[in-house]
Every structure is written in C-alpha cells, then in structure tokens.
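Newbie here. two chains, one complex. Structure please?
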Amino acid sequence: MKKELIELRVNGRAHEVALEPSTLLLDALRQNLQLTGSKRGCDDSSCGACTVLVDGVAMMACTMLAASCEGREIATIEGVSEHGCLAAIQKAYGDWGGAQCGYCTPGFVMTVKSLLAENPDPSEGDVRAALSSNLCRCTGYNQMYAAIREAIAAERQGMVAK
Amino acid sequence: MNKGFSIIGKPTAMVDAAQKTTGAGKYTDDLSLPGMLVGKILHSPYPHARIKSIDTTRAEQLDGVVAVVVGSDAPNPYGILPVGHDEHALAVDKVRYVGDNVACVAAISEAIAEKALELIDVGYEVLPAYFDPEESMKAQSDLIHDNKPGNLEKGYHHSFGDPDRGFAAADHIAEARFIANEVTHAAMEPHSTLASFEIDPHTGTRGRLTVWSSTQVPYYLQHKLSLVLEMPMQQIRVIKPLVGGGFGGKSEVIPLEIIAAVAARKAQAPVKITYTREEVFWAHRGRPRTIIDLKTGVKNDGRITAVKARVVQDGGAYCSYGVVTILYSGALLGALYDIPNIQYDGYRVLTNKPACGAMRGHGTVNVRFAFESQLDELAAKIGEDPAEIRQRNLLKPPCITVNGLRVQSYGLPECIEKTVERSGWKERRGRLGKGRGLGIACSHYVSGAANSIIRSDMPHSTVNIKIDRDGGVVVYTGASEIGQGSDTMTAQIAAEVLGCSLGRVRVVAADTDLTPIDIGSYSSRVTFMAGNATLRAAEEVKKIIAAAAAKKMGCGVEELAFRGDIVLRNGADASSWVELSDRSVRPTQPEASVSGRVEGQILRGSLQQKRKDEGPKESMTFEEAVVAAIDFHGALTGTGSYAPPVDARGGKHKGAGVGPSPAYSYSAQVAEVSVDEDTGEVTVHKVWAAHDCGRALNPVSVEGQIIGSVWMGMGQALTEEMVWKDGMLMNPGLLEYRSPSAIESPEVEAIIVESIDPEGPFGAKECSEGSLAATIPAIANAIYDAVGVRLHESPFTPERVLAALRAKKGAKALNLTEGVDPTSPVRFREHGGSLCFEGKGPERHALDPSRQEFAGGAD
C-alpha cells in the first residue's frame, strides 16, 4: 500500500509521518515516533495496555487507524510527567504498589487521567467501572485503588510530586 | 515497624517504579536495532502430523523477505529439564499440537513476513491425535514421542509411612475425584525476543550473539541457545530488559527465543520476534488440567491418619517442566499439615496440545484444591469447625516430614488465627443469610527449590558488589526482576547491611556478561537465595570498610555501627541514632563533604586528604569510610553466594529432589461469597489472606504479591479456563479467556505474618506464590457453606454451579447446548482468526480417538 503523509499531534507537538492508510495508531506511535510507552498486550482492544487520549477521550490505539487521528490531539503516557517530575498519579502508583511488572501501567494511568478529568471525585464504583476497560495480571487492582485515592488527595492539596 | 532496621520493613516504592509509570522503561518489544528484521512464525494447523515436505521457495522469492528458516536449520533438541530434551526450535519431522512451530520468515516488515508465511508450502501426513490424558495413556501406536510408551512422560509411585494402616485406623474416610481445568499465565507482556550477531574483529566472520528477551531465566536461555546453535556459552550474551510479568510462563526457553537467534544467523541481520496474543496462548506452559482421585482418613477428633492421591496431569505435547510438576503435586501433600501416612501415584501424560509447564504455585495448586475441599467435607462429617480441624493437624517444627521435607519456621497457626479473627469467622459463619457463606483453606509453598534443575554443586545465586570512591554502591545480580520487586529487594538488603541510603545503591541485573550466575526467577527463590547472596556480599564489603574506619577512628571494628550514611563509633548505643533516623531515605549527597572538602574533589588525591585528617573521630560519613577503605585495601568489591544447606535437600527416594526447600511459606484464607441460586453465578465479596513470609522486607510489595496471588487464584476458581475442541483452543484471547477485571475483583485484606526464618535473609521467605493455592478451595468451601453443594471441578462457572444445585434438588439437568452439535460448531472463533478454521475444524485421521468418540457425529 502506498504511504501518505499525515500530521499527528502528539503530546502537544506536531509530527509529520508517512504512513500506509492501514497503519494502526499504536504502530505509528511505537514504530514511527518511537513512543514505546504505549504497550501492545492483545491485538483486539481487550486489555487496554495501549490506551491513549484522543481529544481527551481514552481510546485503545491498537484498534484505531492513525490516519483517523489527523488533526486531533493525542496524549500518550510520555506526556503525563509534568516539568520533568512524576505526576501525582504516577508517584502514587509507584508508592502504593499500583505497578508491579509495569506493562499495563501506562494504559491504566491514561485511563485514570481520563476518569479524573471527567469526574474529579469518583466513588469506588466509578473507579472500578473505569478501570474495567484495562487488564492487569499482577496486582489484583486493590493497590491501584489506594494509589488513585492518594493521587486525588495529593492533587487536591495542590501538590505535584515531591 | 521493625525496630533496629532503617531500610527493610518499610513500604518502599520499587527502584524502577518511575520507569514503569512514565513509560520510559524498555521492555524487549520496545527495543530496536539498525537494520532489524521482523520475524513471523508459521504454526501447525494440525494437532498431530508428520511433515512430508516443506517448500519455502515461493516465500523466499517475495520482495522484502531476507530469510526463511525451517527445522533443519537448527535440528538439535533442547528442553528446560535435562531429562526432557524433546523440543526443537522448529519442527524437524513432526508437529504435535495446533500452533507447533514449523517455519519462520525474517522480512523487512511485519506485513511482508505475514504474506510470506502464506507462500510456504508444507505437506503433512495427518496422524491420530490424543486430547484426553486417560485416553492418551492407552495409546498403542502413533505415539506422540517414540520413546514414551503409553504417551506417559513420567509416572511416580511414592509411599511414606504405612498408608494402609493409616486408613484402617481412620474413623471417617472421604474419597472423591476432583478435576481442575487448564489455566495459563496470560502475562500482560507477550513474549518477545531480539537477537543480533556481531562480527568478530579477529576472524572477520560471524562472532558473538546478543539476545534481549522477556525471560525469567536468562542463564538457562544462554545454556539452551548454546546447545541449539552449537556455540560456546561465553559467545552468547543474554540480556533481560524489563519483563511484563511471567508467573512461570517465561521460566523456561520459549520457542521464539531460539527461533529469533536461528533466524538472525541465517538472515545475517538482527531479528525481533514478538508473539501475538494468540501465539502466547499456544506457547502456553501453564497449569495442566489435573484429575485428582483423593482419599483422606481422619479420626473422630479430626486428626488426619492417611492420604492417598492419584494424580493425572494433561501435560501437552512436550515435557517442559512436567516431571517437576508431577513431583511437586505429590511432595507438597507434606509440609503443610502433620500427615503420618501418604501414598502418591502421579502420572504426567502427553497429549496433542500445547505443553504445560510451571505456573505460579507450580504443581501444588490443583491438589491443594482437592485436599482442602475434602478436609472441609470431613470436618462437616465429624461436626467440627473447618478452622479447628486445620488447627488440629499442625506440624510441630522444627521437624522433618514423613516425605523428607525439613520445616523450620512455621507461621501457619498464626495465619489461621488471624484470618479467623479478622473475618469474624466464629461470629458470622452460618449467619450471613441465604446464598451467602464463608470458607477457609490453607496452603504453602517453597522458598526456592533446594535442588536446582541441573544437578551440580554450584551456588544457586551469586551477587557481586562494587563501591568506588564516589561512594556509589553497585550491586551485580543475575536475579531477574519480572515485576515482583527483586531489584528493589536486592537494593534494600545491600543498603541495610552497609548502612547507606537506598538512593546510593544501583542494581545491575540479569545480563550474562555483567552479572554473576543466578538460576532465575522461579520457584519463589529470589528473596531467599539472591537475598542471602546479597547479604553475604554486602557483609564482605562492609568488613573491609569497617576495618579501615576502625583504623581511622582508633577503635575496634566491633564498636562501629553503620547507619544512615554514617559510620559511627559507639554506634551500638541506640540513642545515638535517633537524630539520624530521618536521613535514611535520601542520599546526603548535596551537603556531603569529606574532611572539609567538597565531595567532588576527593579524586584529586588521597594523600592530600590524609594530611588534612586529624586524630581519631567519633563518626565518619559513608564516603569518608569508603575512601579510607580503598586507600588501605585497594579496590572495594565483595561477593556472596548461596547454596541451600545439605540437610534441606530432601530424602533419598526416586524423585526426592523436588519438594525440598530451605524454607516454606504458609497461608490461610477466608473467602466470603454469595451464590445466585437461579443463575449459578458466584460472587466473591472479600478474601482475608494471611501469609507467613518470614519477614516482610518491603511490606507494600509483600501485600501486592499476596493480593495478586489471591486474585489469580480467584480467576482460576471462577472464570479462567482454556477450552479445547479437538486440540483447538477455543478462547485464545484475553477477552475470551476471562481473566477478572476490576469489576469482578473483590477486596483482599492482606495480613502479613512474620515467623522470622532462621536461614532467610533477615528472616525472609517467599510471598509470591504460596497464597494462590488456598484461594480456590476457600471459595469452593464458601460455596458449600452458602448453598450446600460441593464442587469437584474448577472453575466454578455458572453452568457447573447450576448443575450441582439442580442435582442436589433432584431436578432435571439443564442442557445448555441443546440442539447444538458440539463436534461441528458453526464458527470456531469470531475474531483474530486462527489460521485455518472456518467451518469444521481440522481434518482428522480415521483412527483419531476424537472421531471415534463421536462416531456418526463427524463426517
């Protein structure tokens, strides 16, 4: 298939990339832009390890065409750290054991970001419902809830990572 | 909080946590090299067939294809166990399961490689296939492996004590068949390997090989690569980048790890292969479907008199860890309770399905499900509280069990006590209302096998430590971090011993060129063995530093204490440390100075600095002490290694090598469930899990491991199951495999019990596997408590629960698949697409038992 030149806006920066129209967003991010933080865990949007935000909405990059994102704002895990420091959610995931092997973590962090953007004070049920789009095989999710609660509290105190 | 420790015992974020939460950390599939090719593997569409011919010409001619490799390119057999060298990188003469590896294409892109796979012409002669282990054992011809008559990989018959007399002395005997269906690890990271050869500068030809791979066992991989590629081990470097979960699925050499190297050799370019999720399911090595015929006898007072188990494991097409699995199933009937008489007959059987191997709780989980369920049944029979019958059968350590296992630290009594107390067992059981109940069960696991797979006197773990004049501590360990926190554990132990801050310690791990040998991350051995090696290495370096510091301070080494980046004279006096206690978290770098000099200037010359030093001091900074040690002693390095003690290595009977461990972890759990009697759906509301981990070096990690184990056990108990149809996996996707999501996952209250093992590092034992096995029977027993049905087959799906409920009421069994011919489903898989199945499934040989079984059904 012939490649076409498209512009992808990722984490606030514009990238011009030549892609086959069939290229998936995940492959464009990982292979063309070397943004390997978004992971491939399945191939069919059942695990959520590839979750990114497209215009603020959590989407699974493994089943989305890169070309369909032209002109839209894509946010990946690489854009979450603030001013070279861990964002509150990233710090909390580390401190509270929300990440073990870490392979699913970028996807979870993006999912939580989108949840908190929509609902800054989610109930436990809201958190569970939001996280159910992603799979983790290490943690049993329990420590993630603690991390999310801690991150919300930290954000509320206006405290970014130490 | 643990008094007297400054690093261990405190909840500590993993040393690589930021790499993981920012996405900066690199897993194997995140790596690439210039000129790297993509490898894709052609898999067998038949469960059992002879390869008559392979023609790769058309594939090789496709533009963009660099090389096509087949079995004859690397015909040497290998396998993880020395007794089980029955695998080939790519099939040499036969394929033995749907998904077996036939050929590999290395091409410039994934799309081209996939296209090339379709152009490879393979001629197969289909053979009868075996899918059920008990059928497979009857095979007379067309054996899966010619040297395994009756398709029996291995059979063991053990008798300890006098089982017959034991049963004769019993007042009550229960006997039943339990079945635990097959489950797999489904680690989030699909297997991936990148292999690259470099050119030797002296010969100008192909030289050393470097392999980056998602593995739990880099040194075994190096060994097997050397066998298959016929290269000396020292010419092969294996590097383990971050690994996205293993659970045992990466604890042996997976075909792609060898295939990538073989393809890189032929293509003369780096080759990376990453499995699709479906291929991960085919690679498998999970927990085998296990049929357990169990018989237990008890006295009226609840004392167990004898246990007899006949275990048949459906091992799949290759040996893998099978011989070890079937031995664990028998050996770990012991060491949890005091059982005076044990009879065990274990059969590891070959079938035409992907090979089963080691999975979290290796070999113990399914038998534990059966045993704990039966014990519950016996408790009900004699009218005893299920928690009390367990307390009645405790071991009295230190002791050696009837089957030769040495037990020292034993936290089981406290585990039972704590779970009973926290769950409100005594007050709440039986009072939760209709359809809701509580169940209890216990389990245990080894803290590393006392005998390694390859028998030798080599230490199981070795750790080197280097400290330079900058005061930075570098720990070199072969132990493989796979998410469980082994690097953090290593750093913590080194920092604790040396009395320095965690930020000062850098861990270099799992790189066969840089790090001393460690046999890998499996059998929950890392904290115990690599931890002990780290402890010893750090002690050795500390001795050198202490000698130099004592000389400088004009005191004896015994007067010194190391803590909070300070070496203090008279440090044994605890009050001196009070003001230092807050400094233990961060390095003191910015303000650190050496003899009035800024730290960065130390290197200018120690002579100058020596002159500046005045008489004896009360304390030195860590840097000062290190500089002094290097001046007096020379390079500052230490090494430590660990080999399990001889008296922990087990008995003398055949198969006695598997089961012994220097220490066992213990676990007790109470599960609260409710059962919907109309739909058969089981909901787990909460699990209280107490685990004896010896000492919790990092409590947040210990809790994480306990919760994760319980959760994975719950998956096996309720939803996870590999469903087979004629050797075809019907659910090779994460959605269909149904690992629990956040919605289905209960709260797990992790309770840490510390029994302080006499031989563990700071008393620590394992915490990552032992808890899993108790969860399944705890849930089964809770279901019994809730609705009065005893489930004998896991997972406890709504269909099985409903069938048991209806059978209890004497109601007509529901046929949920009425009107559907199970032998010819309309569609095998809706998405993803297995290679060849549209419609009926693979062509079968006329003598295929699966055909005979449904005579008339198949056409």
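Moderator note: The beta strands of chain A are 4-10, 13-19, 51-54, 57-60, 73-75. The first strand of chain A starts at residue 4 and ends at 10. Thread marked as resolved.
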